[in-house]
Amino acid sequence: MEPNCIFCKIIAGEIPSDKVYEDGDMLAFRDINPQAKVHVLVVPKSHFATLAEMDAAQAELVKKCLQKVPAIAESLGLAGGYRLIVNQGADAGQTVHHLHIHILGGQNLGEKLV
Ligand code: 5GP
Ligand code: ZN
Asked: Which residues pair with 26 in a beta bridge?
């Protein structure tokens, strides 16, 4: 728990969120400013900003998050596919410095950046 981190506060229940999945390792909730019809953030329950700062235990949490993504996507009705984005640092436009996986879908996402 990092006192100034908005995602730590969401994990702690200090800030409300529209949760779609939670277990002991992660929380998934809808993005407050959705960039697609479905836009969910999957957040490990350990504070670190980027993959570069991740320790071995945190890597295990990220692995569990990734393993859970297909079930979360299925529960969101994303049978047609979806896109994952994990912004890393300033050039990527990362604004919340608690690692998170964006799940985007619910529409054809086009070719866009990748
Ligand atoms: P980043 O740009 O760091 O990869 O993404 C941060 C995301 O967090 C943004 O898409 C932003 O809309 C979302 N976000 C920021 N604050 C909140 C919040 O308080 N609640 C929710 N649900 N999403 C947030
Ligand atoms: Zn945090």
From this structure: 44
